[in-house]
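Reply to dn_fold:

You asked what the input looked like. This is it:
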Amino acid sequence: MIQGAALCGARAASSTSGPGFSLMAEGLGWAGMNEVPIVVINYQRGGPATGLPTRYEQGDLKFAIYAAHGEFPRIVLAPGDIEEAFYITVEAFNLAEIYQCPVIVLEDKLLANGIQTINYPDISKVKINRGKIVKDGQDGYDKKFTKFKRFEITEDGISPRVFVGQPGFVFWNTGDEHDEFGHITEDPENRLLMHEKRMKKLEKIIQEVEEEKKINVFGDEDSEFVIVSWGSTKGAILSALEELESEGLKALFVQVKMVHPLDGELIKKKIKGKIKIAVENNYSGQLAGLITEKTGEFFDYMILKWNGRPISHDEAVNALREIIRGKTKRKRIVLTAGL
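and this is what came back:
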């Protein structure tokens, strides 16, 4: 439904939990092949299957990045609180249309079902960018029944776009590989060029998206310790840092907001040479693994929780204090509090 709406020119989004996201993975691939600018909100809960349907987890990060078979560009964003979710969702629509690809806003159930008082949103910060949309009579596209190269191979990898039903423009959409007009073809040279055109968007996204939209940085940049996390763990980490600082214990906190495509060079610059601590609401430390893959930097400690409950202030304080004071030999600290 949202793909049909997006093809016709609407800004369209759907929200779902992890199981619903799983069911639509094939549709996500169709959006990738046809470069459809859709936004999907996935609020994660404990899995697999029905799992913990009323509880919290951050277990879908890698699935969101790789869902659907084959390779195609998508953007995955992760807000850390409710106020941030507002601005990130607005930006998700801009990025979807600028780069003509699916954008997944990866929240978790704690944010999706949370209630919080926030500052009134600053509407002056809300900018709308609809990307390369061609209108009748623009750029020479003024002849009736023009065979329109919707998937034109361009230098920047982004093709001109018109809405379905716009007079004077004819093009095709298909789940198959296609030529510049959208006609199905398995020609190897065309496949090489089309696939490269789509995939080069990932590099362009990393180059063009501003640093402040990729990460937030809090705390002491001169500390030998750096905490890396994403999503709703932000609140517990920030409050823990306040308490630890009152004890003379300091750390840097890097919150990753654009988890895919991950700007490995930017993150490596922030964490290299420091004692690295990952904090995540999942079993395996999915973001930590992704950062290691993209940067070659390994984490010294992991603070993890996956019992369906969020990380509390006290848990974060105690685990971080133990690490910073050098009073633990545990490289993997598993949190279990909560009823």
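The CA atoms of residues 91 and 127 lie 8 Å apart.
Hope that clears it up.
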